[in-house]
Amino acid sequence: MARIAGVNIPTNKRVVIALQYIHGIGAHNAEEIVKKVGIEDSRRVNQLSDAEVLQIRETIDRDYTVEGDLRREVSMNIKRLMDLACYRGLRHRKGLPVRGQRTHTNARTRKGPAKPIAGKKK
């Protein structure tokens, strides 16, 4: 089992698909990495040599921000917005949608489960 950027890569999948298990690498970046290293698209992870895995690991470390560093960077960006008390920061603080979505209906993912409001008794 290959281990790249602290993540165990599935061995029976194609390299392009397996690289997407790393946080911060999507389809486009995975294809770029495979082209830089010079691996065919049809190759599977268990068919890679140790040298090729090392090349992939070095390429990712050199050119991409992934996993822990990326998570830290994103959380620091959100914290900075919250400290500035700008509109986006306030929305993060309150746990509401940040990018202009409506909240009268919907937005349940961000707001959490519906809280019942006590109605008048008959």
Describe this structure in words.
The protein is mainly alpha-helical and 122 residues long. It has 2 domains: 3-65, Helicase, Ruva Protein, domain 3; 68-111, 30s ribosomal protein s13, domain 2. Helix content is 49%, strand content 3%. It has helices spanning 15-19, 27-37, 50-63, 67-84, 87-94, 108-111, and strands at residues 3-4, 7-8. Strand 1 (3-4) and strand 2 (7-8) form a beta hairpin. Helix 2 (27-37) crosses helix 3 and helix 4 packs across helix 5. It starts with a strand and ends in an 11-residue tail after the last helix.
Keywords, separated by commas or semicolons:
2 strands, 122 residues, 6 helices, 30s ribosomal protein s13, domain 2, 3% strand, 2 domains, Helicase, Ruva Protein, domain 3, two-stranded antiparallel ribbon, elongated, mainly alpha
Question: In brief, what are we looking at here?
Answer:
49% of the residues lie in helices and 3% in strands. The chain is mainly alpha-helical. This is Small ribosomal subunit protein uS13.
Silhouette:
elongated
Distance between the amino and carboxyl termini:
65 Å
SS element count, helices: 6
Secondary-structure element sequence? Answer: EEHHHHHH
Domain module count: 2
Which helices and strands occur, and which strands form pairs?
Blueprint: E1 3-4, E2 7-8, H1 15-19, H2 27-37, H3 50-63, H4 67-84, H5 87-94, H6 108-111
Antiparallel strand pairs: 1-2
Helix pairs in contact: 2-3, 4-5
